[in-house]
Amino acid sequence: MSNIKKVAFIGLGAMGYPMAGHLQKHGLDVCVYNRTETKAFDWVNEFGGSSAPTPAEAAVDAQVVFLCVGNDNDVRSVTVGPEGVLSTMTEGSILVDHTTTSRQLAEELEIACQELGVAFMDAPVSGGQAGAENGVLTVMMGGDKATFTRVEPVVAHFAKHAQLMGNVGSGQLTKMVNQLCIAGVLGGISEAFHFAECAGLDIAEVTRALEGGAAQSWQMTHRASTIAKREYDFGFAIDWMRKDLGFALDVAAELNLHLPLALKVDEHYAQLQAGGDGRWDTSGLIEQIRRRREQIEAAQAGALVTHTGGCHCGSVEWTIEAPAVLSSHTCNCSICEIHHYQHYIVPSSRFQITRGEDVLSLYTFGSHIAKHYFCSNCGVKSFYIPRSNPDGVSVNARCLDDATIEAIHDTPFDGRNWEKNASSLAHYSKEQ
Known about the structure:
- By secondary structure, the chain is α/β, with parallel strands linked by helices.
- The chain has helices at residues 16-25, 37-47, 55-58, 72-79, 103-114, 128-134, 145-155, 170-198, 203-210, 218-229, 238-254, 260-274, 285-301, 402-408; strands spanning 6-10, 29-33, 50-51, 64-67, 94-97, 119-122, 125-126, 137-142, 159-166, 305-310, 317-322, 343-347, 351-355, 360-365, 370-375, 381-385, 392-396.
- The strands form 5 sheets. Strands 3-2-1-4-5-6 form a 6-stranded parallel sheet, with helices on both faces. It has a 3-stranded mixed sheet with strand order 7-8-9. It has a 3-stranded antiparallel sheet with strand order 10-11-13, with helices on one face.
- β15 and β16 form a beta hairpin.
- It starts with 5 loop residues before the first strand and ends in a 24-residue tail after the last helix.
């Protein structure tokens, strides 16, 4: 049985408010702080306990201080800031951060706490607002075993499962794994449901058919009906998911890992944010997939534009026809800035040589299927026929957007060629 009686809880958002409430209802003496003070007053009126005007005052005499705020800077403000909890916490007390943060911040806080004789654990949570309200969160904790043993009985008041993952920072790394899994699941569900509705199926009926099988997931069970209704104000916001995916992608870069699925989901979320939809819950991902289809259809219905490219000296010129574009100009890797150009594979039916066929120098590659065409006057490669897709032509055309690229293809390629980007039927080749 825990001997912890007095605690502080900093941050009364959608998660922190009910988490602190569970602690008070289980007999602990809880003092809360929230940046918007009226929220703290409301909490006291509902649960009892007390509130304080600053994090430092809330932490006075607390054996454990819990944090659940927004981001790294918010955590720094309420911990090491002028009125932060570490200015009043005493030796032997414990600081537990339930905020999802960077691993680096967790390590910073451990050092700051060690200087004061305060134990620290990073402890991000999973389960969403409903999990917090029902006291069934999952808590991923990083720190030493002795501290975990002391604090776990208290955490159990709002969690169904708390697990020590390793040293400080391990909790945040585990939460990154959690968010990568959710991103992948939502990416799959969004594409699958979009496929279903475009094929004339009813999402509710599809969900009912799939829920008893291997495709079932929490996201499918709890978000299918709202996705079908195009309602997205439930649970975890896109803004917060992008923050969390950013942490994971940063660590992936440190580890020299490439996470293409996470990058694509993050890109979709970024486009939703740019459209003002960052406060939607994460199931709103399907809207970007729906919009992308609409953009492709609009591009296919639009007027064709002729794009011109060629060699550096102008001896060779080719054109391609494409629908709507971001901008139209002569495209060539030796003329445009190198870090902007993109290789696009376009069907040979869209490609024409308008000048300089007589000065083209041919270089065949490997199997003699791949053919690279250079200008014999300046030596610059103008285009090539890829080995894995002899019916396509690779050109430099950075003025095309993703929707245009998909619209160019009257018949999609078979999917076996390495040049094809999974989402755009194009191979992007960018030099920094």
